[in-house]
Design brief:
One of its GO terms (molecular function) is acyltransferase activity. This protein is α+β, with helices and mostly antiparallel strands and 377 residues long. It contains 13 helices and twelve strands.
């Protein structure tokens, strides 16, 4: 019987660029195609071997509209034979792409899918020209659903101090800086050529940040709040991609398996505290898998804001030594449609380095959602 266990055989991402920085003149399609071409070149596969391209993008308008996945397929070495679907679950858009690819493979419907996502937040500004349904303003205070305000609500409601948030953010930059200088990200990053030269490292990491300076930053969303530019994720440009196949396909094509993809879970929470979404998502994942959080060697939880990272860590009981070990979005940045794939890319490469058996990638999602996916080796 054919083994349809979904596995990851390649996992790459671009460097992440700061808003209006190194990728400000690079379209999202041109951040995406190099990752796909690298996967094909590295595996010796062609478009004839790939069944579908599933590509996440949170802001599907302007340049990022028109079913970007299909356009990316046509612009990449995949070519005309590979269809494409663009997926939106906001911050978990590319996580949903990975989960959908794994589910399709597990069901025997597909053999090989490239799944990932992109967001160029420099070229498609967050929230611009968004038309919200009028009933949302009747049922909710839309100002309170702005992500920064939800982070403030989490901090206030669950007693997460400014000091603890700044400590966490400082640690994120320290860990990301060390990971960069020691080459821990080298295996996962595909350099991107721009008109100004080659970009090979993440641009947002504050390598020389001090804890004192972190504490001096002003708040952004509330005058008497605790969320600052230092303890929040950065607006960023980037892409990430994984080649998901059946175990049988990998064996037939002589491809090394990086990790197996296990269960995935989604959950809904109050939109006003969207940052706590990973808590019910991970708990549901643990229940589905019959495991405890201690059974996982590494957890990558998107650092949308330090306040929600700390509360989720506390509630889920995640050991600090296993949690965002190379830093996260506070240092690296959070290109919305790419983050859900960036998390497993980083997770899987770190699992390989540590010879770890199990890991979880999870994130909160705008307007009150959470998602989690488990991986094993």
């Amino acid at each position: 019987m054919t083994d349809t266990t979904p596995v990851v055989v390649r996992a790459y991402r671009t460097p992440f660029g700061k808003e209006d920085g190194v990728f400000a003149d690079v379209r999202s399609e041109d951040l995406s195609a190099p990752l796909i071409d690298e996967i094909l070149a590295d595996t010796g596969l062609s478009g004839e071997d790939v069944d579908d391209l599933m590509w996440g993008c949170a802001q599907q308008r302007g340049e990022q509209g028109n079913n970007m996945a299909r356009i990316v397929a046509l612009l990449s070495d995949l070519g005309e034979s590979v269809p494409g679907t663009t997926i939106n679950r906001w911050c978990a858009s590319s996580a949903q792409a990975v989960a959908s690819a794994a589910d399709a493979v597990r069901a025997g419907q597909r053999d090989a899918i490239i799944a990932g996502g992109v967001e160029n937040m420099s070229r498609t500004k967050m929230g611009a020209n968004t038309q919200m349904h009028p009933r949302m303003n009747e049922d909710y205070n839309l100002a309170a659903l702005q992500m920064g305000m939800t982070a403030e609500e989490v901090a206030e409601r669950y007693d997460v101090s400014r000091e603890d948030q700044d400590d966490y953010a400082f640690r994120s930059h320290q860990r990301a800086s060390e990971a960069t200088t020691s080459g821990r990200f080298d295996d996962e990053i595909v350099p991107i050529e721009t008109d100004e030269g080659t970009v090979s490292e993440d641009q947002g990491i504050r390598h020389d940040v001090s804890r004192e300076k972190m504490g001096e930053l002003p708040t952004v969303f509330k005058a008497d709040g605790s969320v600052t530019p230092g303890n929040a994720s950065q607006i960023t440009d980037g892409a990430a991609a994984l080649l998901v196949t059946s175990k049988a396909f990998a064996e037939d094509h002589g491809l090394d398996v990086l990790a197996e993809i296990g269960n995935n879970s989604v959950a809904g929470v109050e939109p006003e505290v969207m940052g706590i979404g990973p808590i019910p998502a991970v708990r549901d994942l643990l229940e589905r898998s019959g495991r405890d959080i201690e059974d996982y060697d590494l957890v990558e939880l998107n650092e949308a804001f330090a306040s929600q990272c700390l509360y989720c860590q506390r509630e889920l009981g995640i050991d600090d030594e296993n949690y965002n070990v190379n830093g996260g979005a506070i240092a690296l940045g959070h290109p919305l449609g790419a983050t859900g794939a960036r998390l497993p890319v980083t997770l899987i490469h770190e699992m390989i380095k540590r010879d770890a058996e199990r890991g979880i990638a999870t994130e909160c999602v705008g307007f009150g959602q959470g998602m989690a996916i488990e991986f094993s080796r």
